[in-house]
Design goal:
65 residues
């Protein structure tokens, strides 16, 4: 009984270790891809909104001067 539990624990440990290594590789790949994506995602002049011309009236404070 104890031997069977130890064996089952060992199999589970090996399976989990294998899965952890797979996830580490996947995370590294995602980090590289996202790092390149973020660094190349800089704003260009076309992306920045240009201010519109003022079409309102001067405020009350401006009239008091």
């Amino acid at each position: 009984m104890v031997k069977a539990l130890k064996e089952e624990t060992m199999v589970s440990t090996i399976a989990l270790s294998t899965r952890i290594e797979e996830l580490k590789r996947e995370l590294t790949l995602c980090s590289v891809v996202m790092g390149k994506g973020v660094s190349s995602a800089s704003l260009s002049y076309e992306d920045v909104l240009k201010p519109k011309d003022f079409v309102g009236t001067a405020s009350r404070l401006m009239r008091l001067r």
